[in-house]
Amino acid sequence: MADIADASAQGGDAIRTFPFPADQSVLGVGMQVGRMGAGRTWHATDAPLERVHRIDFHVVMLFAEGPVRHMIDFAEYEANAGDLLWIRPGQVHRFSGTDDYRGTVLTMQPGFLPRATVEATGLYRYDLPPLLHPDEARLPALRSALAQLQREYEDTTTLPLSLHTAVLRHSLTAFLLRLAHLAASSAEAARHQGDTTFTLFRDAVERGFARNHSVSAYADQLGYSRRTLVRAVRAATGETPKGFIDKRVILEAKRLLAHTDMPIGRVGAAVGFPDAANFSKFFHQHTEVTPAAFRSELR
Questions:
Q1: How far is CA 94 from the centre of its chain?
Q2: Based on the domain organization, do 162 and 253 belong to the same domain?
Q3: How far apart are CA 246 and CA 283, in angstroms?
Q4: Which residues span the domain enclosing 211?
Q5: I need a labelling partner for 92 at 20 to 30 A (CA). Which of 20, 57, 69, 118 fits?
Q6: Mean pLDDT across the chain, nearest whole number?
Q7: Is residue 10 part of a domain?
């Protein structure tokens, strides 16, 4: 994400960015929390929700129903009842139809919480997974903390604004600490699933996809036969190793095309295609559009 963000800053921003909708916030505080669903105003009314767009604030959605598909940075996630989606500032995303979204949504403006709390809650840990699956022990506590935050948010009569805001910050911190612990432990669990053939392959692809697209090269690197690698990847994902590699390359290419104004040739080189024509052909084969057309659709 750091490389993409740096390139975006240098090359311009191709996707419309929407700020925190402060005008919809009760008493103008730097957060909102409420119900999602048809007929409820819980998002910017002028945002192209079903097209790719970017936000400059945090969004956390706790789903009461599902499944709901949501795209974040060109990766598709499927959320079910009890799942949470955490979208961080600067990430591009796309809704799959807001009428399908049921549950509670929290939005938070950067700067609403003090720096110490931001660091303690990992608000800008872009390496953590956006889709979280709390277990039966954690889900009730998260729901309770979020419900308490919503009650405090809606109680605008019992405290002066300064104290109301202070209470909101404390309640929000309590919820985010639980959420951050869930995100960190989920990532840790994923890392410790065991050094299986597939997890080793997946990690090797993540490190090397920008320069290595060869299944045989990964098999040699990991010390497996090509046949063993094919069996392991197909069992874990239903895909071939080559399909898995290509999918990761396409995802990175989409991110660079969306987040930056890098020339098409440079995008291709960044994902392992020194020849721009070969990159365009590869991209078209996997997406049915050219890189230029994909970028144009986002503008």
A1: 10
A2: no
A3: 9
A4: 197-298
A5: 118
A6: 88
A7: no
pTM, entire model: 0.74
Tell me: do 185 and 211 sit in the same domain: no
Q: Is residue 271 predicted with pLDDT exceeding 90?
A: yes
What are the tens digits of pLDDT across the range 15-44?
A: 788 889 888 888 889 999 999 876 666 666
Band (3; pLDDT cuts 50, 70, 90): very low
Long-range contacts of 30-33 (CB under 8 A, 24+ apart): 30/108, 30/109, 30/111, 30/112, 31/106, 31/107, 31/108, 31/109, 31/112, 31/153, 31/168, 31/172, 32/105, 32/106, 32/107, 32/153, 33/104, 33/105, 33/106, 33/107, 33/146, 33/149, 33/150, 33/153
What confidence score (pLDDT) does residue 50 get?
Answer: 82
Residue 6 lies in a domain: no
Rounded to an integer, the average pLDDT of 126-132 is 89
Considering 144, 173, 192, which residue would you say is the last residue of a domain?
Answer: 192
